[in-house]
Amino acid sequence: MTSSAAPAYRRMSVEQRRSQLLAAAVDLFGHRRPDDVSVDDVAAAAGVSRPLVYRYFPGGKQQLYEAAVQGAAQELTGRFAVPSSGPPTQRLADALDRYLAYVDEHDAAYGALLRGGSSAGTARTDAIVADVRRQAADQVLHHLAVTGPGPRLAMMVHSWIACVEAVSLAWLDEGKSTPLPELRAWLVDHFTGLLLVTATTDPESAGVAARVLGQETSTSPAGSLAVRLVRLAPAIDHLLA
Amino acid sequence: MTSSAAPAYRRMSVEQRRSQLLAAAVDLFGHRRPDDVSVDDVAAAAGVSRPLVYRYFPGGKQQLYEAAVQGAAQELTGRFAVPSSGPPTQRLADALDRYLAYVDEHDAAYGALLRGGSSAGTARTDAIVADVRRQAADQVLHHLAVTGPGPRLAMMVHSWIACVEAVSLAWLDEGKSTPLPELRAWLVDHFTGLLLVTATTDPESAGVAARVLGQETSTSPAGSLAVRLVRLAPAIDHLLA
């Protein structure tokens, strides 16, 4: 820091000041329940006066919360992006690791946003959450090399994403007692299992499953699951008569 | 109906009148979004004056909505109960049929309640929804003959219920284009698949899976899935090397 740093901060441009306030809001709303954050908290965190916050965000707390949720959504969807190479279930595992790390870092905010019931939630924040889900589904479909999925495949991906959210919330409720790598491995197994059962009735999903399995290896998540599932064969033998 | 029926209605007891108003509210809130129901609508449906509604429900629309959600929760949880005999996945299919029929009959209300975003939703209605989920999980565990499930099995059941809700909402969004029996069969396959993959890592779930599969037949939902899954064997052969 040079001695000119302080004056430079005071002479922030409109855009810089807005970004600074937004960063403070993203940080506060990202680590507390929205009901536990006030405009005064944002002002204090940014080292500015309350009226200055209102000059940039005339909608006050509501506008700050929506902007913070939008910022969080951008960070979260940025984490979905993983390289398009290697076994698809390994890519899914990598993306899930980043997603679950986000849930861990922002537990209070994640819980409040997805559980609803906060007075700060609005149609706009609901729309942002819905958009994050759509982008998550798009990423999964991208790694399955599918564009324009049919209804069953789309519903499959959508319902798995709902499971990831439900499991994330349940993990927070249980006090994070399950180690994250274990939780992630189970969620990937869940995805693979769901793809397999869907493939037994939906021709499009069968094609996707065949292609995905062709890219898997004996040590990838789907390969590991296949080995474990085959061990259950004796338990279903009587059903195949 | 005898000629004395009409006077008897006018001389309703407090409890009878309350039940009549509640029935009107359950019906209205059960078929429309809460934002599309007013106290006047309830009064008109019950053939009484607006002040009379307020005499029984001083909290007005909010109180009527909460009471209606409670009534709907009782009806819905009543549908979970199916006989404790036969293959467990067949029992699950029967309970799901009743659940999905409820979603079909009460589509607007179901969507509004679970999607949130309505001004009528409160901490109390959230708690009622959470209680319905708990009772659904208890019923599933009952048919699996499990009391006091460990964390992984509890999370498995919980996450499948979240999927059922997500799929129900997606089914409403797609304009109910998937036939209900097909949707139900897929959700049961999903359950069985999830139980199988969870059984590959969690000892308790492995015990439950073995017991459940022992009660299944070649024509039960799990038996049918087993036959279909085995056909996928060639696609995983290269993973078992």
Number of strands of chain A: 0
The protein's oligomeric status is homodimer
**Greatest interface by residues involved:** A-B, 59 and 60 residues
Which regions of chain A contain 5 or more consecutive residues with pLDDT less than 50?
1-8
The end-to-end span of chain A amounts to 77 Å
Could you estimate the helical fraction of the residues of chain A in percent? over 70%
- Give Rg of chain A in angstroms: 22 Å
The backbone outline of chain A, from C-alpha atoms, is elongated
What is the architecture of chain A at the second tier of CATH?
A: Orthogonal Bundle
Number of separate helices of chain A: 13
Q: Based on helices, strands and strand pairing, what is the structural class of chain A?
A: mainly alpha
Give the C-level CATH assignment of chain A: Mainly Alpha
- The CATH topology label of chain A is Tetracycline Repressor, domain 2
Averaging pLDDT over every residue of chain A, what do you get? 90
What does the model show?
Two copies of one chain form a homodimer. The first copy, chain A, has 241 residues and is an all-alpha fold. Chain A has a single domain, classed as Tetracycline Repressor, domain 2, CATH 1.10.357.10. Helix content of chain A is 74%, strand content 0%. In chain A, helix 5 (60-80) runs parallel beside helix 8 (123-143), helix 8 (123-143) crosses helix 9 (151-173) and helix 10 (180-199) crosses helix 11. The longest helix of chain A is centred in the last third of the chain and has 23 residues, at 151-173. Chain A is elongated.
